[in-house]
Amino acid sequence: MNNQSLDTTDDRADEFEVSVPSPPELMKRRAKSHIGFILGGSVVLIALLVAIFAPVLAPADPYDQDLTRRLIDPIWGAKGTWKNPLGTDALGRDYLSRIMFGSQVSLMIGFFAAAVSAIVGSCIGMIGGYFGGRIDNFIMYLINVKLALPGLLVALSLVSVFGGSIIALILILSFLFWDRYAVVTRSVTQQIRVNDYITAAQALGTSHTRIILGEILPNVMNQIIVIASLEMAVAIIIEAALSFLGLGVQPPTPSWGLLVSEGRSFMFFKPHLIVLPGMAIFLLVIAINMMGDGIRDITAPEGRN
Amino acid sequence: MAKFLIHRLYISVLVAVTVSVIAFGLLRLSGDLAAELAGEDATPEEIAVIATQYGLDKPLYVQYFNWAGNALTGDLGRSLFTNEPVTEMIFDRIGVTIKLAFFSIVIALIISIPLGVLASVYPNTWIDRTSLGLAVFGQAIPNFFFALLLILLFGVKLRWFPISGNDTFAHFIMPTMTLGIGVMPQFMRLTRTGMLDVLGSDFIRTARAKGLSPLKVLFKHALRNAILPIVSLMAVVLGFLLGGTVIIESIFALNGVGFLAFESILRQDFPVVQSIVFILSLSYILLTLSSDLINAQLDPRIRLG
Lengths: 305, 305
Fold this sequence. Notes:
The complex is a heterodimer of chains A (305) and B (305).
Chain A: H1 2-19, H2 23-33, H3 35-57, H4 95-131, H5 133-148, H6 151-162, H7 166-193, H8 196-203, H9 208-244, H10 256-263, H11 272-299
Chain B: H1 2-25, H2 33-38, H3 44-53, H4 60-72, H5 86-121, H6 126-140, H7 143-157, H8 173-199, H9 202-209, H10 214-244, H11 246-251, H12 257-266, H13 270-298, H14 300-304
Helix pairs in contact in B: 1-13, 5-6, 5-8, 5-10, 5-13, 6-8, 7-8, 8-10, 10-13, 12-13
């Protein structure tokens, strides 16, 4: 008898859920009607596909030099040909292929720098916010030290010491970006910590690690993803800037920042050599930003202003 | 207030000391500096001579205390490259960088505050969207690329402004435009959200109900309250700009601290690099300290809470 009555209430709960869309369902609906998210997401998706399939899609080998075909105009120029739709660079390498392969560098460094700094920064922030007291003071001190250092100069110095390999760049950029994750996850964790379900978990004897990973992390995940998308955009710009200064990705690897820097000596005669890779960075960064703003609106519409 | 002041000072000193250790260690991570300074073909004897000459044979902590002790008296050592005193080198160039940072913030404020106020008064209209678009643009365009575009347009095509050097006011126009556009979005977003918050509050409704003119309400009551966070942001951005002008200074050949740091990193001139990193960190610490103290003075909740 008792069982039966429990069952009926369960059934009613199911009916209730059918009439009101579940949170994931709501998010899907919001995503479908969010123009910025769709537009930005599509551009990011295209860049990702180009990066993955560059070896198949690119018309030529991006490293193949042909000194007899240097600085050829793109297709809309006077002497442009379909053989090199975007012309060639100062060493006769196909520019379209170099730009396509450049998306690999930007996306890879941007993604991993954002991911590594997200892991480090959120761990630091959640630990500080969860434990409070002395541990939190120490973590605030770490964040203050990080904020006081001139990031770009420190990054340049570190690259000059450790070299411009992709892994070194990812780690150095991660060092630049962890603080924002730490600041945000710390303050959100402080608000969550006082909730009953945390106290309940503590009373059950759940370990601190499990509480942080199982109870707190899911609640700060949305914020982490939003910050990560924005930091990925910044990481792409900084990688391009470092490569532009010659202290980033090393030639002949095609990084967009490096392409701008190589094209700089010819920009007065062949402005497309800097405009094309520059616009590539600009478009990718705008798209990532739009996608990030979209994710924020979709996951937490009340946070929008 | 006294308790707040002492605590804040204590943290600042702690951070400053840590930062000095990091600045000191930055280029020393590369391993054997003496061997690097002596050049590739140097014999072990020559390396030993160089090591004694620069005090590199002493243990690291002795080197650090020597440097830090001298730094307290204003002596930052000599450049390994030009043999000039580092303090003089920095003071000769810091004027250019301060001018650059200051004008950039002025440009950013001139654009962002009116736009932010307009956007908050007419939210979700074309004015709001245009200013948001401008913010997205400023955030997404890499400053080295924007600088090159300005050079192409105003320097080469229209010939309005000189493209390199720092002799006249005109030399600063393009560099400050580049940096100003880059930091403008933060100010604009902060003005807009701050104003939206304030405009929705009770005392604004009261002021309006009293029959005050809309402009008076906007500027005397609302903007005044929204401006507090902008003051804090100004300190942060100023600190960021002092260390973030590397790229722009090297593109426009402005002889400032950023360019000096960049050159010194390239030639492993560690006394110069460590001093610049340290001085910039110190100025950031002082800037944020003073903005915190100003805010605490203005807002009793901070100093008593």
